[in-house]
Amino acid sequence: MKKLLLILTVLISTPCLGQNLEGSWKGIIEIQGTKLNLVFNFKEAGGNWSATMDSPDQGGFGIPMDEVTINQNKVLVKSKALQLTYEGTITKDCIEGIFQQSFLQVPLNLKCDTSEASQRPQEPQPPFPYQIENISFPSLDKSITLSGTLTLPDDLKKHPAVVLIAGSGPANRDEEIFGHKPFAVIADYLTRQGLAVLRYDKRGIGESTGSLRKTTTLNLAEDVEASIQFLRNHPNIQSNNIGLIGHSEGGIIAPMVASRDQAISFIVLLAAPGMTGKQILKKQNEESIQRSPITNDQKTKALNVAVQYLDYLAQTSSEGTSTEALHNTLDSIISINLAEDIFPQVSREEMIKSTNNNWIIYFLNLDPSEYLKKVHCPILALNGTKDIQVEANSNLERIESSVKNKELLTVKKYLNLNHLFQKAETGAINEYAQIQETFSEDVLKDILTWISRYIKF
Questions:
Q1: Among the four given CATH numbers 2.30.110.10, 3.90.550.10, 1.10.3720.10, 2.40.128.120, the one describing domain 23-118
Q2: CB burial class (10 A; 0-12, 13-18, 19+) of residue 209?
Protein backbone atom coordinates (compact mmCIF):
# COMPACT_ATOMS: atom_id res chain seq x y z
CA MET A 1 0.00 0.00 0.00
CA LYS A 2 1.03 3.59 -0.48
CA LYS A 3 2.55 5.35 2.48
CA LEU A 4 2.37 9.10 2.87
CA LEU A 5 5.90 10.35 3.04
CA LEU A 6 5.25 12.48 6.09
CA ILE A 7 8.64 12.56 7.78
CA LEU A 8 11.87 13.66 6.11
CA THR A 9 10.28 13.05 2.75
CA VAL A 10 12.76 12.42 -0.01
CA LEU A 11 10.60 10.62 -2.49
CA ILE A 12 9.44 9.06 -3.58
CA SER A 13 18.23 -7.39 -9.54
CA THR A 14 21.83 -8.28 -10.72
CA PRO A 15 25.29 -8.36 -12.01
CA CYS A 16 27.17 -5.08 -12.17
CA LEU A 17 30.24 -3.43 -13.47
CA GLY A 18 32.73 -3.85 -16.11
CA GLN A 19 31.24 -0.66 -17.40
CA ASN A 20 27.88 -2.40 -17.21
CA LEU A 21 25.55 -0.54 -14.86
CA GLU A 22 22.60 -2.82 -15.40
CA GLY A 23 21.24 -3.94 -12.06
CA SER A 24 20.39 -2.47 -8.67
CA TRP A 25 22.63 0.09 -6.96
CA LYS A 26 22.14 0.89 -3.28
CA GLY A 27 23.20 3.78 -1.12
CA ILE A 28 22.28 5.83 1.95
CA ILE A 29 21.61 9.53 2.28
CA GLU A 30 21.61 11.30 5.63
CA ILE A 31 19.17 14.11 6.43
CA GLN A 32 19.29 15.83 9.80
CA GLY A 33 20.80 12.74 11.39
CA THR A 34 18.32 10.31 9.82
CA LYS A 35 19.60 7.74 7.33
CA LEU A 36 17.46 6.74 4.36
CA ASN A 37 18.18 3.90 1.94
CA LEU A 38 17.85 4.59 -1.77
CA VAL A 39 18.10 2.15 -4.67
CA PHE A 40 18.51 2.92 -8.37
CA ASN A 41 17.57 0.08 -10.73
CA PHE A 42 19.25 0.49 -14.12
CA LYS A 43 18.22 -1.30 -17.33
CA GLU A 44 19.64 -1.13 -20.84
CA ALA A 45 17.80 -2.01 -24.07
CA GLY A 46 19.11 -1.31 -27.54
CA GLY A 47 21.64 1.18 -26.28
CA ASN A 48 19.04 3.16 -24.34
CA TRP A 49 19.10 3.34 -20.56
CA SER A 50 16.17 3.56 -18.15
CA ALA A 51 15.94 3.53 -14.37
CA THR A 52 13.56 3.34 -11.47
CA MET A 53 14.18 4.39 -7.90
CA ASP A 54 13.19 2.69 -4.65
CA SER A 55 12.93 4.45 -1.28
CA PRO A 56 12.32 1.35 0.86
CA ASP A 57 12.32 3.09 4.23
CA GLN A 58 9.42 5.24 3.02
CA GLY A 59 7.53 2.58 1.09
CA GLY A 60 8.31 3.95 -2.38
CA PHE A 61 9.18 1.39 -5.06
CA GLY A 62 9.65 1.38 -8.81
CA ILE A 63 9.48 5.18 -9.13
CA PRO A 64 10.23 5.85 -12.82
CA MET A 65 13.02 8.27 -13.76
CA ASP A 66 12.56 10.52 -16.80
CA GLU A 67 16.14 10.70 -17.99
CA VAL A 68 19.19 8.44 -17.71
CA THR A 69 22.45 9.44 -19.38
CA ILE A 70 25.62 7.32 -19.31
CA ASN A 71 28.66 9.08 -20.77
CA GLN A 72 31.93 7.22 -20.30
CA ASN A 73 32.30 7.14 -16.51
CA LYS A 74 29.57 9.70 -15.78
CA VAL A 75 26.00 8.90 -14.72
CA LEU A 76 23.10 11.38 -14.74
CA VAL A 77 19.58 10.49 -13.57
CA LYS A 78 16.65 12.93 -13.47
CA SER A 79 12.99 13.03 -12.48
CA LYS A 80 11.23 16.24 -13.44
CA ALA A 81 8.12 15.51 -11.40
CA LEU A 82 10.16 14.96 -8.24
CA GLN A 83 12.66 17.73 -8.99
CA LEU A 84 15.29 15.07 -8.45
CA THR A 85 18.78 14.70 -9.89
CA TYR A 86 21.53 12.22 -9.20
CA GLU A 87 24.91 12.87 -10.81
CA GLY A 88 27.80 10.52 -10.21
CA THR A 89 31.14 9.18 -11.35
CA ILE A 90 31.74 5.46 -11.87
CA THR A 91 34.77 4.17 -9.99
CA LYS A 92 36.09 0.63 -9.70
CA ASP A 93 33.29 -0.75 -7.55
CA CYS A 94 30.83 2.09 -6.89
CA ILE A 95 29.25 5.30 -8.15
CA GLU A 96 30.28 8.39 -6.19
CA GLY A 97 27.86 11.25 -6.58
CA ILE A 98 25.47 13.92 -5.35
CA PHE A 99 21.75 13.48 -4.79
CA GLN A 100 19.64 16.63 -5.20
CA GLN A 101 15.93 17.17 -4.65
CA SER A 102 14.41 20.62 -4.50
CA PHE A 103 16.66 22.47 -2.03
CA LEU A 104 18.25 19.31 -0.66
CA GLN A 105 21.77 18.37 -1.79
CA VAL A 106 23.62 15.49 -0.12
CA PRO A 107 26.35 12.98 -1.02
CA LEU A 108 25.14 9.58 -2.23
CA ASN A 109 27.56 6.77 -3.06
CA LEU A 110 26.01 3.72 -4.68
CA LYS A 111 27.28 0.16 -4.59
CA CYS A 112 26.11 -2.58 -6.89
CA ASP A 113 23.93 -5.13 -5.16
CA THR A 114 25.00 -8.58 -6.28
CA SER A 115 23.43 -10.49 -3.41
CA GLU A 116 19.77 -10.50 -4.32
CA ALA A 117 19.82 -11.99 -7.81
CA SER A 118 21.14 -15.32 -6.56
CA GLN A 119 18.68 -15.28 -3.67
CA ARG A 120 15.39 -15.45 -5.58
CA PRO A 121 15.11 -19.23 -5.88
CA GLN A 122 11.39 -19.15 -6.72
CA GLU A 123 11.73 -16.95 -9.82
CA PRO A 124 10.47 -19.04 -12.76
CA GLN A 125 13.13 -20.13 -15.25
CA PRO A 126 12.73 -21.56 -18.77
CA PRO A 127 11.97 -23.90 -20.34
CA PHE A 128 8.33 -23.51 -19.35
CA PRO A 129 5.80 -26.35 -19.74
CA TYR A 130 3.09 -23.93 -20.86
CA GLN A 131 2.36 -21.30 -23.48
CA ILE A 132 3.31 -17.66 -22.94
CA GLU A 133 1.50 -14.94 -24.88
CA ASN A 134 2.54 -11.29 -24.81
CA ILE A 135 -0.80 -9.55 -25.09
CA SER A 136 -2.38 -6.11 -25.09
CA PHE A 137 -5.92 -4.85 -24.71
CA PRO A 138 -7.64 -1.44 -24.66
CA SER A 139 -9.03 0.26 -21.59
CA LEU A 140 -12.82 0.44 -21.39
CA ASP A 141 -12.85 3.92 -22.92
CA LYS A 142 -10.22 2.92 -25.53
CA SER A 143 -7.94 5.79 -24.46
CA ILE A 144 -4.98 3.66 -23.37
CA THR A 145 -3.45 0.27 -24.15
CA LEU A 146 -2.58 -2.16 -21.38
CA SER A 147 0.13 -4.73 -22.04
CA GLY A 148 0.79 -7.94 -20.20
CA THR A 149 1.45 -11.66 -20.21
CA LEU A 150 -1.05 -14.51 -20.52
CA THR A 151 0.20 -17.96 -19.53
CA LEU A 152 -1.82 -20.94 -20.75
CA PRO A 153 -1.54 -24.69 -20.14
CA ASP A 154 0.18 -26.29 -23.14
CA ASP A 155 -2.77 -27.94 -24.88
CA LEU A 156 -5.60 -26.94 -27.20
CA LYS A 157 -8.34 -27.00 -24.55
CA LYS A 158 -10.22 -24.09 -23.06
CA HIS A 159 -9.16 -23.31 -19.50
CA PRO A 160 -10.43 -21.37 -16.49
CA ALA A 161 -8.55 -18.11 -16.01
CA VAL A 162 -7.35 -15.81 -13.25
CA VAL A 163 -6.52 -12.10 -13.43
CA LEU A 164 -3.79 -10.90 -11.04
CA ILE A 165 -4.41 -7.39 -9.64
CA ALA A 166 -1.42 -5.52 -8.20
CA GLY A 167 -1.21 -3.31 -5.14
CA SER A 168 -0.80 0.46 -5.22
CA GLY A 169 2.07 2.28 -6.83
CA PRO A 170 3.89 1.78 -10.14
CA ALA A 171 3.61 -2.01 -10.39
CA ASN A 172 4.58 -3.91 -13.50
CA ARG A 173 3.01 -7.21 -14.57
CA ASP A 174 5.21 -9.18 -12.15
CA GLU A 175 4.47 -6.78 -9.26
CA GLU A 176 8.26 -6.58 -9.07
CA ILE A 177 9.80 -5.30 -5.86
CA PHE A 178 13.41 -5.63 -4.62
CA GLY A 179 14.16 -8.20 -7.30
CA HIS A 180 11.19 -10.31 -6.20
CA LYS A 181 8.51 -11.08 -8.80
CA PRO A 182 5.56 -12.41 -6.82
CA PHE A 183 3.06 -12.33 -9.70
CA ALA A 184 5.46 -14.26 -11.94
CA VAL A 185 5.73 -16.88 -9.18
CA ILE A 186 1.95 -17.09 -8.71
CA ALA A 187 1.28 -17.24 -12.46
CA ASP A 188 3.88 -19.96 -12.97
CA TYR A 189 2.50 -22.09 -10.14
CA LEU A 190 -1.16 -21.83 -11.15
CA THR A 191 -0.52 -22.35 -14.86
CA ARG A 192 1.46 -25.52 -14.18
CA GLN A 193 -1.67 -26.77 -12.37
CA GLY A 194 -4.03 -26.05 -15.28
CA LEU A 195 -5.17 -22.43 -14.89
CA ALA A 196 -4.63 -19.63 -17.40
CA VAL A 197 -3.27 -16.50 -15.73
CA LEU A 198 -3.29 -12.91 -17.00
CA ARG A 199 -1.06 -10.25 -15.44
CA TYR A 200 -0.37 -6.82 -16.90
CA ASP A 201 1.57 -3.57 -16.46
CA LYS A 202 -0.35 -0.77 -14.81
CA ARG A 203 -1.16 2.39 -16.73
CA GLY A 204 2.01 4.28 -17.60
CA ILE A 205 4.23 1.42 -16.40
CA GLY A 206 6.29 -0.96 -18.52
CA GLU A 207 4.69 -1.38 -21.93
CA SER A 208 1.28 0.07 -20.96
CA THR A 209 0.36 3.56 -22.11
CA GLY A 210 -1.35 6.29 -20.08
CA SER A 211 -0.40 7.95 -16.81
CA LEU A 212 -0.53 6.39 -13.36
CA ARG A 213 -0.34 9.82 -11.71
CA LYS A 214 -3.84 10.69 -12.94
CA THR A 215 -5.33 7.33 -11.98
CA THR A 216 -7.73 6.46 -9.15
CA THR A 217 -8.62 3.07 -7.69
CA LEU A 218 -11.82 3.22 -9.74
CA ASN A 219 -9.81 3.60 -12.96
CA LEU A 220 -7.73 0.58 -11.97
CA ALA A 221 -10.93 -1.42 -11.39
CA GLU A 222 -12.08 -0.46 -14.88
CA ASP A 223 -8.78 -1.77 -16.26
CA VAL A 224 -9.49 -5.12 -14.59
CA GLU A 225 -12.90 -5.12 -16.25
CA ALA A 226 -11.17 -4.52 -19.58
CA SER A 227 -8.85 -7.47 -18.93
CA ILE A 228 -11.89 -9.67 -18.24
CA GLN A 229 -13.42 -8.61 -21.56
CA PHE A 230 -10.20 -9.61 -23.26
CA LEU A 231 -10.22 -13.05 -21.62
CA ARG A 232 -13.87 -13.70 -22.43
CA ASN A 233 -13.07 -13.20 -26.10
CA HIS A 234 -9.95 -15.40 -26.05
CA PRO A 235 -10.41 -18.73 -27.87
CA ASN A 236 -8.61 -20.75 -25.18
CA ILE A 237 -10.42 -19.35 -22.13
CA GLN A 238 -13.59 -20.62 -20.48
CA SER A 239 -15.48 -17.34 -20.48
CA ASN A 240 -17.75 -18.46 -17.64
CA ASN A 241 -14.84 -19.45 -15.35
CA ILE A 242 -12.79 -16.34 -14.62
CA GLY A 243 -11.60 -15.39 -11.14
CA LEU A 244 -9.60 -12.55 -9.60
CA ILE A 245 -6.61 -12.54 -7.27
CA GLY A 246 -5.86 -9.12 -5.80
CA HIS A 247 -2.95 -8.11 -3.59
CA SER A 248 -3.12 -5.15 -1.20
CA GLU A 249 -5.01 -2.38 -3.05
CA GLY A 250 -5.75 -5.07 -5.63
CA GLY A 251 -7.66 -6.78 -2.83
CA ILE A 252 -10.04 -3.81 -2.78
CA ILE A 253 -10.31 -3.75 -6.56
CA ALA A 254 -11.29 -7.44 -6.79
CA PRO A 255 -14.55 -7.00 -4.81
CA MET A 256 -15.23 -3.69 -6.60
CA VAL A 257 -15.21 -5.59 -9.89
CA ALA A 258 -17.01 -8.67 -8.57
CA SER A 259 -19.77 -6.53 -7.07
CA ARG A 260 -20.50 -5.15 -10.55
CA ASP A 261 -19.95 -8.38 -12.51
CA GLN A 262 -21.97 -11.28 -11.17
CA ALA A 263 -20.29 -13.66 -13.63
CA ILE A 264 -16.99 -13.58 -11.75
CA SER A 265 -16.38 -17.12 -10.43
CA PHE A 266 -14.32 -16.31 -7.33
CA ILE A 267 -12.02 -13.73 -5.76
CA VAL A 268 -8.87 -14.20 -3.67
CA LEU A 269 -7.87 -11.29 -1.40
CA LEU A 270 -4.18 -11.22 -0.48
CA ALA A 271 -3.40 -8.79 2.36
CA ALA A 272 -6.48 -6.84 1.36
CA PRO A 273 -7.78 -3.85 3.30
CA GLY A 274 -11.06 -4.32 5.10
CA MET A 275 -10.80 -0.95 6.85
CA THR A 276 -11.47 2.32 5.06
CA GLY A 277 -8.71 3.98 3.09
CA LYS A 278 -8.35 6.71 5.71
CA GLN A 279 -8.02 4.16 8.49
CA ILE A 280 -5.39 2.22 6.51
CA LEU A 281 -3.25 5.28 5.77
CA LYS A 282 -3.48 6.53 9.36
CA LYS A 283 -2.33 3.13 10.61
CA GLN A 284 0.52 3.03 8.09
CA ASN A 285 1.69 6.48 9.12
CA GLU A 286 1.53 5.52 12.79
CA GLU A 287 3.67 2.44 12.09
CA SER A 288 6.15 4.44 10.03
CA ILE A 289 6.44 7.22 12.61
CA GLN A 290 6.97 4.78 15.47
CA ARG A 291 9.92 3.30 13.56
CA SER A 292 11.46 6.72 12.84
CA PRO A 293 14.66 7.76 14.69
CA ILE A 294 13.07 10.72 16.52
CA THR A 295 12.07 11.36 20.12
CA ASN A 296 8.75 10.22 21.58
CA ASP A 297 7.58 13.82 21.80
CA GLN A 298 8.40 14.32 18.12
CA LYS A 299 6.61 11.09 17.23
CA THR A 300 3.46 12.35 18.97
CA LYS A 301 3.60 15.64 17.12
CA ALA A 302 4.32 13.97 13.79
CA LEU A 303 1.40 11.58 14.19
CA ASN A 304 -0.94 14.45 15.08
CA VAL A 305 0.14 16.27 11.93
CA ALA A 306 -0.34 13.16 9.81
CA VAL A 307 -3.83 12.43 11.15
CA GLN A 308 -5.03 16.02 10.84
CA TYR A 309 -3.64 16.39 7.33
CA LEU A 310 -5.29 13.15 6.21
CA ASP A 311 -8.59 14.31 7.68
CA TYR A 312 -8.29 17.53 5.70
CA LEU A 313 -7.48 15.71 2.45
CA ALA A 314 -10.43 13.35 2.89
CA GLN A 315 -12.78 16.35 2.95
CA THR A 316 -11.44 17.99 -0.21
CA SER A 317 -13.06 17.76 -3.62
CA SER A 318 -12.55 14.62 -5.70
CA GLU A 319 -10.85 16.90 -8.21
CA GLY A 320 -8.25 17.89 -5.62
CA THR A 321 -7.46 21.35 -4.35
CA SER A 322 -4.94 24.05 -5.14
CA THR A 323 -1.31 23.69 -4.17
CA GLU A 324 -1.57 27.00 -2.31
CA ALA A 325 -4.48 25.72 -0.21
CA LEU A 326 -2.59 22.55 0.64
CA HIS A 327 0.46 24.58 1.65
CA ASN A 328 -1.57 26.91 3.84
CA THR A 329 -3.40 24.06 5.54
CA LEU A 330 -0.29 21.97 6.11
CA ASP A 331 1.66 24.96 7.45
CA SER A 332 -1.20 25.71 9.85
CA ILE A 333 -1.40 22.10 11.08
CA ILE A 334 2.36 21.96 11.65
CA SER A 335 2.33 25.29 13.48
CA ILE A 336 -0.58 24.32 15.75
CA ASN A 337 1.26 21.12 16.71
CA LEU A 338 4.58 22.95 17.28
CA ALA A 339 6.19 20.57 14.80
CA GLU A 340 8.26 22.99 12.70
CA ASP A 341 11.49 21.22 13.67
CA ILE A 342 10.20 17.88 12.35
CA PHE A 343 8.89 19.21 9.04
CA PRO A 344 11.43 21.44 7.26
CA GLN A 345 10.28 23.16 4.09
CA VAL A 346 11.66 20.49 1.76
CA SER A 347 9.59 17.85 3.59
CA ARG A 348 6.48 19.96 3.28
CA GLU A 349 7.04 20.38 -0.45
CA GLU A 350 7.30 16.64 -0.93
CA MET A 351 4.25 16.01 1.23
CA ILE A 352 2.25 18.32 -1.01
CA LYS A 353 3.52 16.62 -4.18
CA SER A 354 2.81 13.13 -2.92
CA THR A 355 -0.74 13.95 -1.80
CA ASN A 356 -2.01 16.48 -4.36
CA ASN A 357 -3.58 13.89 -6.65
CA ASN A 358 -6.90 12.21 -7.33
CA TRP A 359 -5.72 8.80 -6.12
CA ILE A 360 -5.18 9.83 -2.51
CA ILE A 361 -8.51 11.64 -2.19
CA TYR A 362 -10.43 8.73 -3.73
CA PHE A 363 -8.59 6.17 -1.63
CA LEU A 364 -9.10 8.03 1.64
CA ASN A 365 -12.84 7.87 1.11
CA LEU A 366 -12.90 4.27 -0.11
CA ASP A 367 -14.75 1.75 2.05
CA PRO A 368 -14.24 -1.89 0.97
CA SER A 369 -17.34 -3.00 2.89
CA GLU A 370 -19.53 -1.18 0.38
CA TYR A 371 -18.36 -3.64 -2.27
CA LEU A 372 -17.80 -6.76 -0.19
CA LYS A 373 -21.45 -6.84 0.89
CA LYS A 374 -22.49 -6.95 -2.79
CA VAL A 375 -20.22 -9.85 -3.78
CA HIS A 376 -22.05 -13.11 -4.46
CA CYS A 377 -19.17 -15.38 -5.47
CA PRO A 378 -16.77 -17.36 -3.20
CA ILE A 379 -14.17 -15.23 -1.40
CA LEU A 380 -10.83 -16.32 0.04
CA ALA A 381 -9.20 -13.71 2.32
CA LEU A 382 -5.60 -14.30 3.46
CA ASN A 383 -3.09 -12.29 5.48
CA GLY A 384 0.05 -12.71 7.58
CA THR A 385 0.63 -11.81 11.21
CA LYS A 386 3.78 -9.82 10.32
CA ASP A 387 2.01 -7.55 7.83
CA ILE A 388 2.62 -3.97 8.99
CA GLN A 389 1.09 -2.35 5.88
CA VAL A 390 -2.33 -3.98 6.09
CA GLU A 391 -2.58 -5.29 9.64
CA ALA A 392 -4.10 -8.78 9.63
CA ASN A 393 -6.49 -8.88 12.59
CA SER A 394 -8.45 -5.67 12.11
CA ASN A 395 -8.68 -5.97 8.33
CA LEU A 396 -9.69 -9.63 8.23
CA GLU A 397 -12.29 -8.98 10.93
CA ARG A 398 -13.74 -6.11 8.89
CA ILE A 399 -13.82 -8.28 5.77
CA GLU A 400 -15.68 -10.99 7.72
CA SER A 401 -18.23 -8.54 9.06
CA SER A 402 -18.78 -7.01 5.60
CA VAL A 403 -19.57 -10.19 3.69
CA LYS A 404 -23.28 -10.98 3.97
CA ASN A 405 -23.22 -14.67 3.01
CA LYS A 406 -20.68 -16.12 5.42
CA GLU A 407 -20.82 -19.49 3.64
CA LEU A 408 -19.05 -17.89 0.67
CA LEU A 409 -16.14 -16.63 2.77
CA THR A 410 -12.96 -18.46 3.79
CA VAL A 411 -10.47 -16.57 5.98
CA LYS A 412 -6.98 -17.66 6.96
CA LYS A 413 -4.18 -15.96 8.86
CA TYR A 414 -0.57 -17.12 8.49
CA LEU A 415 1.92 -16.95 11.32
CA ASN A 416 4.99 -14.75 10.66
CA LEU A 417 4.20 -13.88 7.03
CA ASN A 418 4.62 -10.26 5.93
CA HIS A 419 2.73 -8.10 3.42
CA LEU A 420 4.37 -9.98 0.53
CA PHE A 421 3.63 -13.39 2.12
CA GLN A 422 7.27 -14.02 2.93
CA LYS A 423 8.40 -15.63 6.17
CA ALA A 424 9.62 -12.59 8.12
CA GLU A 425 11.27 -11.58 11.37
CA THR A 426 9.83 -8.07 11.75
CA GLY A 427 7.60 -7.45 8.74
CA ALA A 428 9.39 -4.15 8.03
CA ILE A 429 9.53 -2.99 4.42
CA ASN A 430 13.32 -2.80 4.39
CA GLU A 431 13.37 -6.50 5.29
CA TYR A 432 11.69 -7.57 2.03
CA ALA A 433 14.90 -7.46 0.03
CA GLN A 434 16.83 -9.51 2.57
CA ILE A 435 14.45 -12.47 2.37
CA GLN A 436 15.15 -15.15 -0.23
CA GLU A 437 11.57 -16.39 -0.38
CA THR A 438 9.34 -14.50 -2.81
CA PHE A 439 5.96 -15.98 -1.91
CA SER A 440 5.03 -18.68 0.59
CA GLU A 441 4.56 -22.10 -1.01
CA ASP A 442 2.03 -22.95 1.70
CA VAL A 443 -0.11 -20.01 0.60
CA LEU A 444 0.21 -21.03 -3.07
CA LYS A 445 -1.00 -24.54 -2.23
CA ASP A 446 -3.89 -23.20 -0.16
CA ILE A 447 -5.01 -20.90 -2.98
CA LEU A 448 -4.94 -23.76 -5.49
CA THR A 449 -6.80 -26.15 -3.18
CA TRP A 450 -9.48 -23.54 -2.46
CA ILE A 451 -9.99 -22.65 -6.15
CA SER A 452 -10.35 -26.33 -7.01
CA ARG A 453 -13.43 -26.48 -4.77
CA TYR A 454 -15.29 -24.23 -7.18
CA ILE A 455 -13.72 -24.82 -10.60
CA LYS A 456 -12.58 -27.96 -12.38
CA PHE A 457 -9.23 -27.72 -14.18
A1: 2.40.128.120
A2: middle
